[in-house]
Design goal:
Strand order of the largest sheet of chain A: 4-3-2-1-7-6-5
Shape of chain A: globular
Largest interface: A-B, 72 and 72 residues
Organism (chains A, B): Acrobeloides nanus
Protein name (chains A, B): Phosphatidylinositol-3-phosphatase
Radius of gyration of chain A: 26 Å
Keywords (chains A, B): Lipid metabolism
InterPro entries (chains A, B): Myotubularin, Myotubularin-like_Pase_dom, PH-GRAM_MTMR6-9, PH-like_dom_sf, Prot-tyrosine_phosphatase-like, Tyr_Pase_AS, Tyr_Pase_cat, Znf_FYVE_PHD
Number of strands of chain A: 18
Strand content of chain A: 15-25%
GO biological process, one term (chains A, B): phosphatidylinositol dephosphorylation
Largest sheet of chain A: 7 strands, antiparallel
Oligomer: homodimer
């Protein structure tokens, strides 16, 4: 969208209504740009920036003496209520917002306009190496995939399956004939391929879509491929065929000529069903949960609404299924996992299983690899599920919070194992937000092919690069890097909680906004500085000087001490930084690092030099 | 109880059944002593010690091939299930447990046997000064009570009110005649007296019991006393009469000649009712909550059961009432608070109000003073509510978790304000447990007079002394000592959670057992050591030596490294201690502090000297 297409771009004297009524309404000015909705308060330095892609719905409500109300609901669960004095202005703003928030073509996403100079000199392939986290060869090398598996270029140029990656790993003995046959027998040609190899015992997790079995169809090549997968794990004589759908749903698919494997045709294999509901049930469940979080007025109503939303129950079943897969792998039994198309429930459950099994995926880098592999690589439809193309009303019924649900599952695991993950809650919140924001190319497109066609690697910024540049913000100070399987996950009913820091994250007035993590990170940094200093003194490299720091003072600070910089510390992406000399808190812009690695404010830095 | 009265004192080859089935049953030996039930595992160093007073109920269940089951439910929410091979042994054990767990006379509580040499030389008064936290004179001096209030010895030797303290603070102009008159008009003679004076504006919180008003009775002296209380706050011309009961309950009391103040007789005063339910409703609510926590099998069932228990709703109403009182005080309006007898709901709500108002009560010492004052001082019936005298079946209907509920409220506040309290969760768990354990004299007796008669100060140990000797265990590393009013408490429906670390604290297999607090405390200690060391180097007091410590290594430890000491780190009262040289973890017995204040293990200590 060109800038001139926007109607009203500025509305003055607008009131921002506090939902909870715990703070007074702020008065400010609205600016609409091609990329953002901006509210700038008049008397305070407060600013709200919302990427236009995050705007989910806009409602005009009844006119009162104070003006007209406009309610903006965002995909990151923020709700903005505005009170606009003149009705005409409200209507104009409404129409402008409708225009800027609707995307007709993914090529018009903000991510493509943010990068001023696309890397034209660089080939797409070259750019991709830096832009993506995942390199298929390297990842399977890291997994130490045994020689019962091989790489195939059978799907080069997406010849057989356009929602799969070009490079696939399959049993070493599988012929092209077998692969082609299996493709024809699987929904959207998504044949069973390797995604995780457990080097300790040679068991593997494979993924695919449902077979086109109907009531009696069978496919010798598909049966043969499954046998080869079973055989690739030499220490077991069985294979689990895991269908993540409730059995009744799978039965219904038979009518359409799809369905599930008839184990009478798949020798020595066992079939397991899990009651994970489809995208429509999950969408409606989250909507109910959001109502519970944002509209309940009593504890009773809240608990009832949380219960009837079923959201926590869905999280539990997902973890149960992931745990079943990882437990099977530990017991040396390979698993082939599918749902209907093999991109929603399959991506969720195989990713959960891998998080439990492999500590690598619990690191910041490894988690990005996991998303690049099992979500982006195997074609989770981010465009459709996150409704990037909001102008297309037909596509709205494809929208579903499947990815958010997975992130919520990771949060639940993290809550139970506070030292098992290298990243913190803020990392998950950031990833979830940018799955919807269209500010980075990372989560654009419905599959690998889409992103290649869009040339995201040269035309957009990568979210991973953004995270790299702020890595310290996303680290869990309590992380223990020991490698172990997360075997004692609590599946008891009291183990699941509503993630209020996600669903109620914008209720700033009342939620506890203090991240204990930040305090711990600062303490840890301070400790490193002291240790380095002591070491230097001991080695005679540094003359002892009067370097006195009070730890306690680090905790007594609230907002940037140089107040004129206009930054607030309630924004969750902003970390508090402490001057190690005076102990006051500053924002990133107002603090510097000296030659000893200590953070100092401008004044103390001047005094010390 | 004498030792010889115990029947079976030892049963071998007993299986301890894991409730959740997540761990294998342990085999061990049961020992019963006059004071404790002990389970000692055979192959592991695991031991379970339970004070006999904590045993709430014992059930024998059906006999199976594996033996007879015995289920012991404790007042600290621990449930022990034993499988005993021989039925005869099971029956004997059952009867022994019944005998040792039932107390007929509070003089037989274990606290009186634990102290081998009662301080016979010391007078009770002298002993009390060290034993109790509260000294009424000092506390009211700390509050800077204005000269519109005075101390009276009117109740010396508990002459008028046997459930009140001997020293009382009343309006300076109140005559003895007025006090006597008011006593006669109040349930159990609990007349309105001062408990908290807000020095910033002179407003005060007073407490009392319900008036014996019936349908029309009035008392000039009582009305006069209320006027004097209103007048003692010179900057306001009104007074709030706060009845914490639902209005309908207060009405019912009128039939029995009790009830509430008729504001037509109390000039310029306003009456406010709160819907806090009585002890029977709270008892049943907690029982339902415990069923939810311990018996639910699905998330749906759990959430429904939590909701229908009403526990979180009760917590919310308590905080609402406490907040109303403290907000009134801030607006310079004094409050007189009562319920029926003025010891249950009144103790809860005035204590909550004071926690919100005064940062002193949020320190470890101050919280103990608050308990000594508003719970112990004003006669909260610990014997009856915690059912110390469990042999008396008549008294069982007096039992109610009013104190536990208050501790839960403090936990909810602490969750919202993680830096506002000097103490941590473990401190609250410890206090709650010992309110029931009868191991310390602190929570014995129904009132101040009872404890004087029992001479607890000379004959028993004080819980406060025990806490003092382990102070570091109970400190919140994230505490900010700035003084402020907790004004922005979230009363929204999602703000209240089930305190699983209390109600599910013994589900060891699955709950996250890692206290982030411990890691932070160790880091902080380590930081202090480094700072001291650096200072000494800088001042030339210490020669630089190769003192290298890796912070990261502090986090990679699980159990006492010198495994032969038999201590486990899953017990919540045991803190992990780290050797600052090798970074390994040790228990308290196996670690020493060197001359520089560093904790070192025996081996490293030897190497360094």
């Amino acid at each position: 969208m060109k800038f001139q297409e926007i109607g009203t771009t500025k509305v003055k004297r607008v009131q921002l209504v506090d939902r909870l009524g715990s703070e007074a309404n702020l008065i400010g000015t609205i600016h609409i740009t091609t990329s953002h909705f901006i509210f700038k308060a008049e008397d305070t330095p407060k600013e709200i920036w919302i990427s236009n892609a995050l705007i989910g719905s806009i409602e005009r409500s009844s006119i009162s003496a104070a003006g007209s109300r406009l309610i903006i609901k965002c995909k990151n669960f923020q709700t903005i209520t505005l009170l606009i004095p003149k009705e005409k202005e409200c209507l104009d703003l409404y129409e402008t917002l409708l225009r800027v928030s609707k995307l007709y073509n993914i090529n018009e996403a903000f991510a493509f306009f943010r990068k001023e100079n696309p890397d034209k000199q660089v080939s797409v392939k070259e750019a991709s190496n830096n832009w993506f986290r995942l390199n298929w060869d390297e990842e399977f090398k890291r997994q130490e995939v045994g020689d019962t598996w091989k790489k195939t270029d059978f799907n080069a140029a997406y010849a057989y399956c356009d929602t799969y990656p070009e490079e696939l790993w399959i049993p070493a003995n599988a012929s092209t004939q077998v692969l082609i046959g299996s493709c024809r027998f699987r929904s959207r040609a998504r044949l069973p391929v390797l995604t995780y190899y457990y080097k300790a015992n040679g068991a593997a997790i494979c993924r695919c879509s449902q077979p086109l079995a109907g009531f009696s169809a069978r496919c010798v090549e598909d049966e043969n491929l499954m046998e080869l997968i079973m055989g690739a794990n030499q220490s077991a004589s069985t294979l689990y065929l895991i269908d993540t759908r409730p059995k009744v749903n799978a039965m219904v698919n038979k009518v359409q000529g799809k369905g599930f494997e008839d184990v009478r045709n798949y020798q020595n294999m066992q079939s397991h069903f899990f009651d994970i509901e489809n995208i429509h049930v999950m969408r409606s469940s989250l909507n109910k949960l959001l109502d519970a979080c944002q509209k309940s007025t009593s504890v009773t109503e809240y608990l009832k609404a949380v219960e009837s939303s079923g959201w926590l129950r869905h999280l539990k079943i997902l973890i149960e299924c992931g745990k079943f897969i990882s437990d099977s792998i530990l017991r040396c039994i390979s698993c082939v996992v599918h749902c209907s198309d093999g991109w929603d429930r399959t991506s969720q459950t195989v990713a959960i299983a891998q998080l439990l099994l492999d500590p690598y995926y619990r690191t910041i880098y490894g988690f990005q690899v996991l998303l690049d592999k099992d979500w982006l690589g195997f074609g989770f439809k981010f465009d459709d599920r996150c409704s990037h193309l909001s102008a297309n009303e037909e596509l709205l019924k494809e929208a579903s919070p499947i990815f958010t649900q997975f992130i919520d599952v990771v949060y639940q695991l993290m809550r139970q194992k506070p030292t098992a993950f290298e990243f913190n809650e803020r990392f998950l919140l950031e990833i979830n937000e940018h799955a919807y924001s269209c500010m980075y190319g990372t989560f654009l497109g419905n599959c690998d092919k889409d992103r290649k066609d869009l040339r995201v690697a040269t035309r957009t910024h990568s979210l991973w690069a953004h995270i790299d540049s702020n890595l310290e913000h996303y680290k869990n100070p309590f992380y223990k890097s020991t490698s172990y399987y997360l075997n004692d996950i609590d599946l008891g009913p009291s183990a699941f909680v509503v993630w209020t820091n996600l669903y109620n994250q914008f209720d700033t007035g009342i939620q506890p906004r203090e991240y204990i993590n930040d305090v711990a990170v600062n303490t840890k940094e301070h400790l490193n500085v002291l240790e380095t200093k002591l070491k230097q003194v001991n080695e005679g490299k540094l003359l002892p000087t009067n370097f006195s720091v009070k730890w306690q003072s680090l905790l007594n600070a609230e907002e940037c001490y140089s107040r004129n910089c206009g930054l607030e510390y309630t924004t969750r992406f902003e970390k508090r930084l402490y001057c190690y000399n005076c102990g006051k808190v500053f924002c990133k812009r107002c603090i510097k690092v000296n030659e000893h690695g200590s953070r100092l404010c401008a004044q103390c830095l001047k005094a010390s030099s």
